[in-house]
From TrEMBL:
It comes from Streptomyces tabacisoli. It comes from the Bacteria. GO terms for molecular function: copper ion binding; oxidoreductase activity. Belongs to the multicopper oxidase family. The chain holds residues 67 to 499 of 516 of the full protein. Residues 15-128, 171-248, 318-433 form the Plastocyanin-like domain. Keywords: Membrane, Metal-binding, Oxidoreductase, Transmembrane, Transmembrane helix. This is Multicopper oxidase domain-containing protein.
Length: 433
């Protein structure tokens, strides 16, 4: 937009029908289409504005998951857009290159709206990421991989939970980018997969069927300091990972989700998805591949908060019935933090079932997991983290930002991102003052 100097995006939430399987239409919803939404992309330092229209026949919101932005622009459950209504949040992108996403956040209805297809990616670039020798041709060697589990009930998408599923809805097959039995044809020696777990309850543990490893290059909020060689990466709902996979001419391999191995206990694992296996995405290499540069040894300066700077500690006890014994209440502020300060939050799950923990506005550093140094996949910038039963984590967070970030009247959320739990009240509110 020439007048405002903003990069403007248009998003229209709408409902419609999708034919996931030939001849079988099912009601779905999406942004600018009938399922999922466009990938938005902006660069650090850029001003952005998203013109949202709600074409649904119910109220909704759009939240920018992982984005550092003033509370008024965050799209939480207080910022509802009625049917036929519109909202145009704007902010300056002020964070490192990362794979973020957007989705509705209406209190009590998030699971139902996300399940129907309301979600999309939001990619952030920065000067350094644009110069790095990582695959970055979108849709060519840099692929969005939005993973969701589904179940069909006849022609229709099923939504109900089974009896013992206390994590919420679990499907019996997966889709990538809204496609069943997906494959990607690759023409380059190296391909970057931007993995987003956009499922409402299911946790995945990704790896390749032929045993090949991959390089983890980024977590929720940005690139790692250096690539890390791995064989498996676990992602709970809302988490992201960027991985780079090496291909050989004519190669085929399958990205599979394996049994979790750390799901709290055997009963939970059996009835809540921890034992399941899914073939998620097949990669098919062309017979000749374009050479890709080898991975840089240094990726990014991570901009992680330092727990030594913490001025305050807080404690969060996770239960399905609420956090710190309290169910989410729209008119109660649970925590007040001071702009420009660093805090340490200790999060504990002793609830007998898996949960995760997501905090709006910030990217945190995981200082410890059960008193130990976190594994490499939990050492980068994170906004969501999986906590199986019996886990205690210490997180360092810094509440950065200019004066527009001080807003005692508009809360941000922290919550379990298993959406059935979130909708049921496993969420709290904090303000930055
Ligand atoms: Cu992805 Cu509060 O949400
Ligand atoms: Cu969020
Ligand atoms: Cu939970």
């Amino acid at each position: 937009d020439n007048r405002t100097g903003r990069r403007v995006f248009d998003l229209r939430a709408q409902s419609g029908e999708t034919e996931f399987r030939p001849g079988r239409k099912t009601p779905t919803a999406g942004f600018n289409g009938n399922y999922l939404g466009p990938t938005l992309r902006a660069k650090r330092g850029e001003k952005v504005e998203v013109r949202i229209r709600n074409g649904l026949d119910e109220a909704s919101t759009v939240h920018w998951h992982g984005m550092h932005l003033p509370a008024r622009m965050d799209g939480g459950p207080h910022r509802m857009i009625g049917p036929g209504g519109s909202w145009s949040p704007h902010w300056t992108v002020g964070q490192p290159a990362a794979t973020l996403w957007y989705h509705p956040h209406p209190h009590g209805e998030t699971e139902s709206q996300v399940r129907r297809g309301l979600a999309g990616m939001f990619l952030v670039d920065d000067d350094r990421s644009e110069r790095l020798a990582l695959p970055r041709r979108y849709g060519v060697d840099d692929l969005p991989v939005i993973v969701q589990d589904v179940r069909f009930d006849g022609a229709k998408l099923a939504f109900g939970h089974k009896l013992m599923q206390n994590v919420g809805f679990l499907g019996d097959r997966t889709m990538v980018n809204g496609t069943l039995d997906p494959y990607a044809v690759v023409h380059d020696e190296r391909v970057r997969l931007r993995l987003l777990n956009a499922s409402t309850a299911r946790t995945y543990r990704f790896g390749f069927t032929d045993g090949r490893g991959f390089a983890l290059v980024g977590t929720d909020g940005g690139l790692l300091g250096r690539p890390a060689a791995m064989n498996r990466i676990q992602l709970s709902p809302g988490e992201r990972a960027e991985i780079v996979v090496r291909m050989r001419p004519g190669d085929r391999t399958v990205l599979r989700s394996y049994p979790q191995g750390n799901y709290g206990d055997a009963w939970q694992s059996r009835f809540n998805g921890g034992d399941d296996t899914f073939d998620v995405l097949q990669l098919r290499a062309a017979d000749t591949l374009r050479p890709s540069p080898s991975l840089p040894s240094r990726l990014a300066g991570q901009e992680l908060p330092d727990p030594a700077d913490a001025v305050r500690e807080r404690y969060f006890e996770l239960r399905k019935s609420g956090i710190n014994g309290r169910k989410m209440a729209m008119d109660r502020i649970d925590e007040t933090v001071t702009r420009g300060t660093t805090e340490v939050w200790t999060v504990h799950n002793g609830n007998g079932m898996p949960h995760n923990f997501h905090i709006h506005d910030v990217q945190f550093r995981i200082v410890s997991v059960n008193g130990r140094k976190p594994p490499v996949q939990l050492r980068g910038r994170k906004d969501t983290v999986f906590l199986p039963n019996g886990t205690t984590m210490k997180l360092a967070l810094r509440f950065n930002g200019g004066p527009e970030f001080a807003d005692p009247g508009t809360p941000y959320m922290f919550h379990c991102h298993l959406l059935y739990h979130e909708d049921g009240g496993m969420m709290g509110q904090f303000v930055v003052v």
